[in-house]
Write a structure and sequence with these properties.
The structure is a single chain. With 362 residues, the protein is α/β, with parallel strands linked by helices. It has a single domain, classed as NAD(P)-binding Rossmann-like Domain (Rossmann fold, 3-Layer(aba) Sandwich), CATH 3.40.50. It is 35% helix and 17% strand. It contains twelve helices and 13 strands. It has helices at 13-23, 83-88, 90-111, 144-157, 186-197, 215-225, 247-257, 281-286, 296-309, 318-321, 324-333, 348-352, and strands spanning 2-6, 28-33, 54-57, 73-76, 115-121, 165-171, 173-175, 199-202, 209-214, 233-238, 244-246, 262-265, 354-355. It has an eight-stranded mixed beta sheet with strand order 10-6-5-4-1-2-3-13, sandwiched between helices. A three-stranded mixed beta sheet has the order 7-9-11. It has a two-stranded parallel ribbon with strand order 8-12. β5 (115-121), α4 (144-157) and β6 form a beta-alpha-beta unit. The longest helix has 22 residues, at 90-111. The two termini are 16 Å apart. 47% of the residues are buried.
Amino acid sequence: MHILIIGNMGYIGPEVSQHLRRTFPDAHISGYDTALFADRLTCEGPIPEIVLNKQYFGDVRDFPPSLLEGVDAVIYLAAISNDPMGKKFGEVTDEVNRKSCIKIAQFSAIAGVTHFAFASSCSVYGCASDHPLTEYDVTNPLTAYARSKIEAEIELKELHSDRMFISCLRFATACGFSKRLRLDLVLNDFVASALQFREIRVLSDGSPWRPLIDIRDMARIFEWAITRSGEKFVIVNAGSDENNYTVKQLAEAVASQIPGTQVDINHDAPPDKRSYRVDFSYLSRIAKNYVPQISLAHSITSLIDGITECNLAQIPVFSARLTRLNTLSDLIATEKLGPKLYWSTKNMSQNKKSFENISYNQ
């Protein structure tokens, strides 16, 4: 099996790469990434890409179709990956999250790829209802990020490839420890704040709902998506019913595991419309062996252990360094990136290199 992970050098990619290597030790696994966050490593040690057979550097907007020769499965993780970044880089969000995804899916179908897995998001639901939302409920994307995801889903459905299985995975909000940790995700942020300051500041009134999924469970669902049979095209909510929580409940859960932590909720905050409970029963029916297994408590523990082991809470600037919008802003301010998030000319040679001899030893 030959697997290509597009956007592998972010927060989720390292866990997906390592899980697939453990599961398919003889597979040829390659990665393709523009490396915007390559140096945002959480700890010292070998880079996560050591488990790959090959790592390519490049922008998805300039993806070369030749890289799909002989590829069996594509995982599309590349994204401008949250609401603040989507607000600041709206045009790029559409280009990366939707246009490039569709272009590469079309290339994949022509190249004979049999499985294409797209990382979509439960944020497409947008606003809470009086019941958990299923894949058949109306979507209500409220941000550029969410709109890019639902529009990509619509265009993928219209692709109509007779040979390629397409899976649109509407993931719950990601959480858990990673070798490239992100602290602009709600649970990760709460744990980091509690460890560093013994305080969690909830900017909303705490009432918005957020379903969660640990990145280790995300990796298992990608495994299912690139090996599944059945319907050629599926949209599936990816998470578990047990992991629907309000933001207040998340803060309190973190505080309960980190003694001395105070939770400060802004009761005067305007309502946060980004609130949704999600029904994940369809996943349990079509992929019962891949339903999420990691509880909220275990995700919190993994974050506490990882941050503590890496001694991150003792570094004053670690929260800013591991926030993606800050990283992009810094790269633009130092003229390493242009306003459309292409590497500047002086960095282009770095962007175009590929590691030809990264090998994995079982």
